[in-house]
Amino acid sequence: MKKPDFTASFDIADAIRHRLVSYQEIIRATENFNEDNLLGVGSFGKVYKGRLDDGLLVAIKVLITQVEQAMRTFDAECQVLQMTRHRNLIKILSTCSNLDFRALLLQLMPNGNLESYLHIEIRPCIGSFLKRMEIMLDVSMAMEYLHHEHYEVVLHCDLKPSNVLFDEEMTAHVADFGIGKLLFGDDNSMVSASMPGTIGYMAPEYALMGKASQKSDMFSFGIMLLEVFTGKRLTDLMFIGELTLRNELPEQRMAMNDVVAKLKGIKKDYTASMQAMQGPRQY
Ligand SMILES: Nc1ncnc2c1ncn2[C@@H]1O[C@H](COP(=O)(O)OP(=O)(O)O)[C@@H](O)[C@H]1O
Ligand SMILES: [Mg+2]
């Protein structure tokens, strides 16, 4: 079995990993939740950029505590992020949990999410086939770790472009484990009645019967792959007939480790053919 892809280097995130952050410090960091510091709005709260007292810039995901589901997403996200570690997964730095306030402090992703690059502010930095391939390889390696290399199988259950975030170097990180789930022992699926994923990305068996498994994550990954390489939203009319993934049975879907191998092979062949087209190097 392959060894987990842990990032070995010590970084500043490790230094504050167990540091508790108070509500007052979060108020200071976000300048009293100033909308100018808003990074994104999610289903159960808002995400702000903030500078902690020691100068570290972080993302602060503040949950609406009046909603019971929001509290459950907080617990799920804490549980998954605290037990996982991979270069393509978002890192949790700390949490702040009071009676009526919950916030997750996350590694800041200064370059936004994949959804906005694909459909809102299309930028040349993700325009090439190779860059898109690298993004999907990053995502697939994070998912391979969760599905095949982590000691307990972790399901994401909400894979989609707005949950893929970019760091300074435009390396992709999988985020948003609010409805992530753990599979225990020999289980290879679980039935969940609450909090389904996102329409369009959810596998039919997950949407209809709440059956979450590695295969349901694979469905969402497949939809995202089509979206990234065509640049079209899945609601587009081109995704009907032969191009629909919906007729495929869960067991026909590839496993994440095979996808990683396949994407690496395609990338290698593509790079070699581009080099061959450019001819031998002149020195
Ligand atoms: N660590 C982060 N760094 C930068 N932006 C973030 C970060 N986490 C979330 N965001 C922004 O906030 C949005 C919503 O966050 P997300 O964790 O996906 O919440 P939700 O569960 O409500 O969808 C993301 O799509 C992204 O644009
Ligand atoms: Mg999200």
UniProtKB/TrEMBL annotation:
<keyword id="KW-1133">Transmembrane helix</keyword>
<feature type="domain" description="Protein kinase">
    <location>
        <begin position="33"/>
        <end position="283"/>
    </location>
</feature>
<keyword id="KW-0067">ATP-binding</keyword>
<dbReference type="GO" id="GO:0016020">
    <property type="term" value="C:membrane"/>
</dbReference>
<keyword id="KW-0677">Repeat</keyword>
<dbReference type="GO" id="GO:0004674">
    <property type="term" value="F:protein serine/threonine kinase activity"/>
</dbReference>
<keyword id="KW-0812">Transmembrane</keyword>
<keyword id="KW-0418">Kinase</keyword>
<keyword id="KW-0433">Leucine-rich repeat</keyword>
<dbReference type="GO" id="GO:0005524">
    <property type="term" value="F:ATP binding"/>
</dbReference>
<dbReference type="InterPro" id="IPR051809">
    <property type="entry name" value="Plant_receptor-like_S/T_kinase"/>
</dbReference>
<dbReference type="InterPro" id="IPR000719">
    <property type="entry name" value="Prot_kinase_dom"/>
</dbReference>
<dbReference type="InterPro" id="IPR017441">
    <property type="entry name" value="Protein_kinase_ATP_BS"/>
</dbReference>
<dbReference type="InterPro" id="IPR008271">
    <property type="entry name" value="Ser/Thr_kinase_AS"/>
</dbReference>
<keyword id="KW-0547">Nucleotide-binding</keyword>
<comment type="similarity">
    <text>Belongs to the protein kinase superfamily.</text>
</comment>
<dbReference type="Pfam" id="PF00069">
    <property type="entry name" value="Pkinase"/>
</dbReference>
<keyword id="KW-0723">Serine/threonine-protein kinase</keyword>
<protein>
    <recommendedName>
        <fullName>Protein kinase domain-containing protein</fullName>
    </recommendedName>
</protein>
<keyword id="KW-0808">Transferase</keyword>
<feature type="binding site">
    <location>
        <position position="61"/>
    </location>
    <ligand>
        <name>ATP</name>
    </ligand>
</feature>
<keyword id="KW-0472">Membrane</keyword>
<dbReference type="InterPro" id="IPR011009">
    <property type="entry name" value="Kinase-like_dom_sf"/>
</dbReference>
